[in-house]
Amino acid sequence: MTSEQHTGSGPAGAAAVRLIFEYEGPDIRLVSRQRVDAAPPPTDDLSETTGPAGSDATDERPGVKGFWVELRDARQQPLYRRVMHPPVRYDAEVFSDDPDRSLARVPVDEPKGAFAVLVPELADADHVALVSSPLAPGPTVAPAAEVARFALREDEDEADAANDADETEEPDEGGH
User: What are the domain boundaries of the chain?
Assistant: First the structure.
């Protein structure tokens, strides 16, 4: 989008997209895309990408652990990266009955929740990728890999869903 097309009340260069995700256990889905007039956080370092064009996230940052969100172009090249705390929580902070310890962490068997990420609106961005060390309870020692990928344009998701529905639809044999 060019600055001439910007119709919001904020500065022309401050268009961003708020992506809202929901999760149940390690399953994450994109549930909302909202264009907002806000300045997104700056990108984290993209120079660590060492893999060839089109390589998987595990090849791009070998041995790196953690969680991050990437906007990528159609050739899989990262355009924006935001390193974050892992959003899927396998523990919860609760008040403790122990007078020496007012708060305690307890395991959560079936984590469920939502999180939001603010990213810039980039013309070349094709999709958002979530890259993470394994989304599981306990300390993470395994390198990060792509765990989910979503189109940035809703019409692409709707077309994919329609194609999936066409492939699973059974022929109408009745004439009702």
Answer: 13-166
